[in-house]
Amino acid sequence: MAEFIVTEAFGGPGESGEARVFEAVKAAYAGEEALGFWRYPLITRETVREPDILIADPRLGLVVIEVKSLPLDAIERVTGYRWDLARPYFDQLHLNPYEQARRQAQVLGELAVRRANLPQLGTRAIVALPLVTREAWDGRFGHLLSDIPMLFAEELSPARLRTALERTPPVRYGQSLDPEAWTALRSALGTSGTVPRREVRLPPPAREPSPRRADLVARTARHLHAFDLQQELIAKTIPPGPQRIRGIAGSGKTVLLAQKAANMHLKHPEWHIAMVFFSRSLYDQIRQQVDHWLRQATNGEQSLRTAQHRIHILHAWGARDQPGFYRTLATQVGVTPLTVDRTPPGSPAAKLLFACRALLLDAQLTGRSLQIFDAVLIDEGQDLVHEEAALSFEEKQAFYWMAYQSLRPVARDALLETGEPEARRLIWAYDEAQSLDSLTIPTARALFGEAGAQMFGGGALYRGGIRKSEVMNRCYRTPGPVLLAAHALGMGLLRPEGMLAGLTNKAGWKAIGYEVEGMFRSGSQVTLTRPLEHSPNPLPTFTDAPLVTFQNHPDRQSELRQLVTSIQRDLGAEGLQPSRQILVVVVGLEWEPSRIQAEVFHALRAANISVYLAGNKDVNVPRQKWPDTDPNSFWRDGAVTVSPVMQAKGNEADVVYVVGVDRVAVREDNLQLRNQLFVAISRSRGWAHLSGAGMEHLPLNQEIQSVLAAGNTLQFTYRAPRRRMDDDMEQARLPWYASPGGGRGG
C-alpha cells in the first residue's frame, strides 16, 4: 500500500501549492504500492535543495516533482529551460525548475543505486504548476516547453496525474522492480537500510560441528531490518510543537533522536538544537550517531564537526570540564551552577532535579530568560522525573519545565496553526520500564500538570499529519524470547501474589508489540505472545539453544567461579571478543552493586581476564576516584566491562551476564529492583544469563524458572498491579496528553 511522509508541517510561504500537489499524488496512488515524501531530507551542493516531492514507484523508479506555486503573470519570459520572473520569488528573478528537478533526481538515483545495488533503477523529473492551467500557459507562451515535463492545475486528478508521470521521459532509464528490488529501494531511502552496521570480527573457523556464538552473532549482524514506516515518520519529521516518543527497550529511540537532530539541522541550519540524555556513558554513541546521519544525508559534505556550533550534545547535568544542559542554562541565567556535593542527599536524578528547581527559581526572581534553543530532544526521559513534590516546580517536573523554558516559541504563521497559544519543540523519548529511580511515567500531564492540556492542545495530530505522540513497538536489539523474559520478570507477571507493575488492557500490550488473548479482569487468564515482526532480531531462528538461562548457586564464590568459566568459554570456544560482545551487569540497591562489582572484578582478574569497570580511566584496576576517572566511557578494547545497571543503560552486548539476582530475590516486591532486572536483561542482543546465590527457598527462584519454561508464550493470572503503565493516549476517548492519576502507579 502507498505510504506518504510529510517531513515538516505545511505552512511556509509558497507551500500551499506544494500541499495541493502532494495531496493529489497521495490520491493518485491510493491503494497501490508507492512511497512518497514531502521534502525528502537530502541536502548537498549537487541537489540545490531538498526535493519538494519524491515518489518511489516500483514501475517508474524515482520521480522528483519540483513545485512552483507561481501565478502565470509572475513569469515574464521563458527562454529554453530558464524562466525570467516579473517579481522576485524567494528572492530570485530567474528560475530553472526542470534542471533543478533533474539534478535532484540524478543525485537521488545515484544514492539509491549505491545503497541498494539497483543498476536497473529509473528516475524521472517533472515540474508542477498548481496555479496555472495548460491552456493559459499555451495561450501566453505557446509550446515553448514541449520538451520539458510539466504538470498543470487541471492534471491533478488521480488518472491524469498518473498518466503525466508515466509519460515523463526518464532522466535515467530503468526497469520495473521485482519485489526484492522494491524492498531494497525502500530500505535505501529509509532509516532501516542506512543504520550504521556493526562490524563483527570473526576468529578462525571453528573445528566443532555446531556454530559458535561468534558465528551466530556475525550472521545476525548481516541481517537487514525490513523497511519500518514508523521509524521513517519519527526520524524524518519535524513537529511544529511538542512530541512524545514512547518506545520499548531496543526500539532504536537513541538512533532516531540522533537522526531527527541531524535532519533538523540540515533543514534549519540556523537553529540551535540540544540533544540531551541522562547517562554520561552515551556521549560517544550519540556523537557517532549524529555524525553518521549528517554525513549520510549530505553525501559526506557535512558532519558533527561542521555542525558543532548548532547541534549541542549535552549530558543532562554537566561537569566542570564538560558543558551539560543544566550548567549551560545556569550560565545563561548568570548563576553559579550547583554541584552534586551542594545538593541534599538523594539519588542522582533527585540531585539534578533539585538543581533544576533552584535554577528555575533564580530565573523567576531575576526575570532572566532561559530561551537559547530552537529544539530540545531528550533521550532516557524516564530518568529525569521524580515523584517527590519537593522536587517539582509549580506542580511541574523541574527538568522538563526547565527544558521547555529553554526553548524559543515556534514562529507563528497563518498557515501553520496548531490551535495552541504557542508551541515549542520539546521532544522526549522514554521507556517507563527502564526507570531506575522514579515510578512517574513521563506523560505530558505528569510532566506539566494541567498546563499540559493548554500547552499541547487536543487531538492526536498536528496539521499535515505529524503525530504528537508515537509508540514504538518493534525491538530491533533484543531477541523476542529475551524481551518477553525481561518484561515478565520486570513486571512480576508470574508472581504468586500477582503482577507488581504493567499494562492493564489489550490495547496497551498490543501497542508495545504483543499479541494478547484473555480478559484483564481479576483472576482471569491472559496469554502474551511476541510475534516475529515485532522482534526482528533473527537469532532465535538460527539456534535451538535457550537464549535466557538462570543458575542459583549455594554461595557467591560458586556463582563467580561459574561466571569465570562461562566467560572463558565465550572468549575461547565461542570466539567472542571481550569488549562490546560480553557485558557483566550487577544488580542491587545502595552499596550492594559496588560490592558485587568488586567481587566480579577480582574473580575475573584472578583468571587473567582483562576487566574494565565502567567509568574508570584505566583497565584492570579496582574502582578509581576522581581525577582518575572517565565518566563518559563504558568500553575499553580487549576488556570485559563490569557495570552497575545505571551505567549500563543505553549500552548493549551480545552476551549479558546478570550477577547478584539474589539481591532482587530478598526484596522481590521492590519496583526499582524489578526495573533493574528488566534493564539488565534487555541490554542483550543475543544471550542473557542470570545468576544468584542462596535463592533456593526464595519465591523469585521459582518465578524465574517458570518464566524461562514459558518460552515464547507467557500465560499469567491477571490482578491489578501496584503500578499501572498504561498509555491512555492510545484510547481515542481521551485527549492525547491524558493519563489517569497524573502518570503515577496505582
Automatic annotation (TrEMBL):
SUPFAM superfamilies, per the entry: P-loop containing nucleoside triphosphate hydrolases (SSF52540)
UniProt key word tRNA processing: no
Single Gene Ontology MF annotation: ATP binding
Residue ranges of every copy of the NERD domain listed in the record: 14-128
Region (Disordered) residue spans: 193-213
InterPro entries found in the cross-reference section: NERD, P-loop_NTPase, UvrD-like_helicase_C
Taxonomy, superkingdom: Bacteria
Domain UvrD-like helicase C-terminal stretches: 640-690
Protein name: ATP-binding domain-containing protein
Record organism: Deinococcus navajonensis
A Pfam family recorded for this sequence: NERD
Keyword field: ATP-binding, Nucleotide-binding
Lineage: Bacteria, Thermotogati, Deinococcota, Deinococci, Deinococcales
